[in-house]
Design brief:
Elements lengths: L2 E4 L9 H17 L2 E6 L9 H14 L5 E4 L4 H13 L3 E4 L3 H13 L15 H9 L5 E4 L5 E6 L3 E6 L7 E3 L8 H10 L4 E5 L3 H13 L6 E5 L2 E2 L15 H6 L4 H10 L12 H7 L10 E2 L2 H13 L3 H10 L5 H7 L9 H4 L1 H4 L11 H9 L10 H13 L4 H12 L7 H16 L2
Length: 441
């Protein structure tokens, strides 16, 4: 069975850039009949909160994603401690005592000499006496993983064959001086323990993959298959970021966007699949293949989101809209079918429904008053159907010689108070003769 995981840090509200891997993992799990794990990377106790974690679950559910398993790294420390001890025992994890200032000076010196600013592994040469002296000074070590320093090869399901040469990298710090774990070790340990088969994430993690493969192998775990997708950017080409306050998924929800519209934009932008309405997430999962994901940046267009959101509403059947209409005190299939073509967001129907229920403020130009008075006098008797509009306007055309905009616009402005709106032949039937008489001067 395929097992995937999405691993957000609950340090803020998730945005479109976060939703992209969350959904791509979901699509892969649905398509392969696999298992989807939501893993909260909450080891940063200073910034992670339960409120943000709960918010992530709410946002995922709104998008249509239901994890098969939820785990929290803050509850799995014993696993990481065991992995730490194993790596120390095998000589792959070693203590280093340099301060951040000392490391900065080393990097600056390397640059001046034209060398890459990678860690020189000085800590590997420390004697027990030197370590004890540092400890006596009050220094606490951070712990580095000793890389093999070799080309690490892997076949990326999106980018194809990849090589990361760990010889050009610093031995990564896995444990801070205060004893807390950085992202890398807990992530690897969880992937091994949870038997993750596929890691689907942003291409900004490609260089991390070589390091992570070495750690997995050092712990005796099975190396998963990797797929690194292109990153979603905003309209200006800037990456989405919690730090920069990028619009969150909860913002889109509060602004009235359809979750499926947001999901489509988050995932199909930057692919060869069209940005168009889909029935549900499973319909996307059936069509989207990793080969369809571009290797270039995926730029989000808010105008395209509005257009897609409108198209989803225009195609929405009354049965689907009914619960939401009912909660707004609006019922009736005829009203929905008449007004949905004018909606960009669902809540717009509250304003559009006033065309039927009132009140509206008729707009009447002085030069049209005589024409509208005649129109009122010639308003057909009921019962009405969708032929009533043409019967009425044809009679007015014959009586006044008006046609086109000069004929239709004064009637629309008097009956709706707007230049735009639904077809008047359908609106007229819902209004009824009395409402039309009341709106005509």
């Amino acid at each position: 069975m395929t097992v995937v995981r999405w691993a957000p840090s609950p340090t803020g509200r998730i945005h479109l850039g976060n939703a992209r891997p969350a959904l791509l993992n979901w699509f892969f799990a649905r398509r392969t009949g696999g298992r989807y794990i939501l893993r909260m990377d909450d080891t940063d106790l200073a910034r992670s909160t339960r409120e943000f974690a709960d918010g992530i679950e709410v946002d995922l559910a709104w998008l249509g994603v239901t994890p098969d398993l939820l785990v929290r790294q803050s509850e799995r420390t014993a696993l990481y401690d065991a992995a730490r001890d194993k790596l120390i025992a095998s000589g792959r994890l070693y203590p280093a005592y340099e301060t951040e200032d000392e490391l900065d000076r080393k990097r600056a010196r390397a640059r001046l000499l034209g060398k890459p600013p990678i860690y020189d592994r000085a800590a590997l040469g420390l004697t027990d006496e030197q370590k004890a002296a540092y400890e006596a000074e009050g220094r606490k070590p951070h712990w580095r993983f000793k890389l093999d320093g070799r080309p690490v090869h892997f076949n990326d399901l999106i980018k194809g064959p990849q090589t990361v040469n760990t010889a050009s990298m610093s031995d990564p710090v896995l444990i801070r001086a205060d004893g807390s774990y950085l992202y890398t070790l807990p992530s690897v340990v969880d992937d091994i323990d949870l038997e993750v088969t596929h890691v689907i994430r942003g291409e900004d993690h490609v260089s991390n993959t070589g390091t992570q493969i070495e750690i997995i192998e050092a712990l005796g775990g099975a190396v998963p298959t990797f797929a690194h997708h292109n990153l979603l950017t905003d309209a200006a080409g800037q990456g989405f970021s919690k730090r920069l306050g990028s619009q969150s998924i909860s913002d889109f929800r509060n602004e009235g966007y359809e979750p499926l519209a947001v999901a489509v934009m988050a995932t199909l932008t930057g692919t060869s699949l069209p940005i168009e309405p889909y029935k549900n997430l499973d319909a996307i999962a059936e069509k989207l293949d990793f080969s369809m994901i571009s290797h270039g940046a995926a730029r989000f267009d808010p105008v395209e989101l509005d257009s897609l959101n409108a198209r989803l509403l225009h195609a929405m059947p009354y049965e689907e809209a009914f619960p939401r209409l009912s909660s707004m005190g609006l019922e009736g299939e005829a009203i929905w079918n008449l007004l949905r073509e004018n909606l960009v967001r669902f809540q717009d129907i509250a304003e559009w429904s006033k065309l039927v229920t009132g009140p509206i403020e008729p707009v009447i130009a002085e030069e049209d008053r005589e024409f509208l008075a005649l129109a009122k006098a010639m308003l057909p008797a009921e019962p009405w159907d969708e032929t009533t509009w043409s019967t009425w306007t044809n009679a007015l055309k014959g009586a006044t010689g008006r046609k086109g905009k000069a004929l239709f616009l004064p009637l629309r402005m008097a009956l709706t108070g707007r230049h735009d709106g639904p077809e008047l032949k359908s609106l007229l039937v819902l209004l009824g003769r009395k409402a039309c008489l009341d709106r005509l001067p």
